Amino acid sequence: MILGYVVTGPDNDGYMLDGVNLSDTETCPACGLLLNFEYHNPDLKLRRSTFDLSHCYDLGTIVSLRLKEFCTRCNYTGIHFSSFHASQNYYQIFIDNKIELDVAKREIQFIKKCKHCKRYKEVIGATPAFLKNEEPIPDGIFASDLFFGSDNSKNPIIIVGTETREKLQAEKIKGLWFEPIYTFSQWEGNFKPKPAEQKKWYQFW
Length: 205
Ligand SMILES: [Zn+2]
Known about the structure:
alpha+beta, five-stranded mixed β-sheet, 5 helices, 13 strands, binds zinc ion
């Protein structure tokens, strides 16, 4: 049984933090990383503004007006959007609906903890994603409780329900890639790669 999907889009060739001078109040004094990876730069200029959902190279997920309106029409709650001065009709999406991942089953790696802010320089092991609570994801848009990546390039994974995927496809929202989320036992029995293939496959995207 598929519990839901991890959804990703293409990269948009942009950096959220491009040209940004982060202030002392925005970063940890010890490790220098952002205190909040849900960072919005209103001056972001999108170089490729054709996608309905895309990711900056460092942080931030950008959606089109079309996808934003789709979310409104579906009455999806727990998400909000911020606009850009120079990229009209595109928005950064922030997802307050968090879903807890199973750190142990996925063997998520946490590397170099900062003594001051208690966060990690690197977090590896986003997909395949395993849920702490292995129940079907309801219709809506959710984010993992963890941020993956290194340094300031960190993002949660975006998770949707099976019904949400059908709606997105019916709407012909472009460029989305869906990776099924299975229960851990189902994945182990059917999809776990053989040790020889594991290294190239079983990594952070
Ligand atoms: Zn720190």
